[in-house]
Amino acid sequence: MPKIKKVDHPIILGIVGDSAAGKTTLTEGIAQILGPDRVATICTDDYHCYSREQRAENGISALDPRGNYIDILEQHIQALRQGKPILKPIYNHHGGTLDAPEYIESKEYIILEGLLGYTTRAMRSCYDVKVYLEPTEELRFRWKIQRDTGKRGYSVKQVKDSLAKRVNDSIEFIQPQRTFADMVVQFYPPEANQEETGANLNARHTLRPTLPHPDLSPILDVGIKNGFKLELSRDTDGKPVDVLDISGSIDDKRAKNMEDLVWKLIPEAQHLRDNVGTFTDEKNKSAVSHPLALSQLMITYHMVKAALGHHAI
């Protein structure tokens, strides 16, 4: 497989968001496009410094920086940026315990996903691309119940109790990190079906001018009927941003046209092309979402451009 990197350091992507915001699903698709052998994927939630039992005793949640080895995470991101290996801790989400650490080598691309990846200035300075995930809260709650009852052995009541306890910590520690992202991605149900949690969710990309985003005009010129809409708007802080909406009802042909356009903008990476947009639905079955696939591809575009030196920081 040919190499495309022209910079002398690993390209680092950050994906931050609240619990069950879709970080792992997004990460897996991006790693699949770039090539799993080229990507080191690290969950920053592995840096919890307390077990689940200890958190219950001391009242410090996993969302609180005090409940995490933030200083070690910071050191590890810097080491990876320099091409050095790390000995990464492991948090066992099923049992809520701290397991033996894992040796991780720095690779061509590194994806760090988790709750607190943008906590310090030193961390933030290491990323080439920063993404923040913010699905609507009702959707995130449904995703969390689905994941924690299906994969982590919780009851529905336990999940709801946990969500209620974490509300203040989410507001204080997680949501403020949104301001540091180059791109904010929000999945939300269509107006006609508020119960939707999967393939037909819409996606909204808030594109900040901190990165040069791709020119999508060849697709967007045909209008919203094509399943896409791009408009100049104001972010929550009042600053101007571009907002791209991708309809969850977009058909296969139109989605492929958008994918083809983005791939043409990164011809150096044609060898990376593969199917994306796969996720596990509420019935625990594999499904495909076009808005998810296009979101993964848009972020991959920035990773490739960064590797070519276009996003120098």
What descriptive keywords fit this protein?
single chain; 313 residues; alpha/beta; Rossmann fold; eight-stranded mixed beta sheet; two-stranded antiparallel sheet; 22% strand; globular
Describe this entry's structure for a reader:
The longest helix has 19 residues, at 156-174. This protein has helices at residues 23-34, 52-58, 70-81, 121-124, 137-151, 156-174, 217-220, 252-265, 290-307, and strands at 11-17, 39-43, 86-92, 97-104, 109-114, 129-133, 183-188, 202-207, 228-234, 240-246, 278-280, 286-288. Helix 1 crosses helix 9 (290-307) and helix 5 crosses helix 6 (156-174). The strands form three sheets. Strands 2-5-1-6-7-8-10-9 form an eight-stranded mixed β-sheet, with helices on one face. Strands 3-4 form a two-stranded antiparallel ribbon. Helix content is 34%, strand content 22%. It has 313 residues and is of the alpha/beta class. The protein has a single domain (11-307), classed as P-loop containing nucleotide triphosphate hydrolases (Rossmann fold), CATH 3.40.50.
CATH class category label = Alpha Beta
Helical segment count: 9
Q: How many domains?
A: 1
CATH topology: Rossmann fold
**What would you say the CATH architecture is?**
3-Layer(aba) Sandwich
Radius of gyration: 19 Å
State the shape.
globular
**Approximately how much beta-strand content do the residues carry?**
15-25%
Task: Identify low-pLDDT runs.
Answer: none
Strand order of the largest sheet: 2-5-1-6-7-8-10-9
Q: Largest sheet, if any?
A: 8 strands, mixed
Rounded mean pLDDT is 90
How many β-strands, per DSSP? 12
Secondary structure class reads alpha/beta
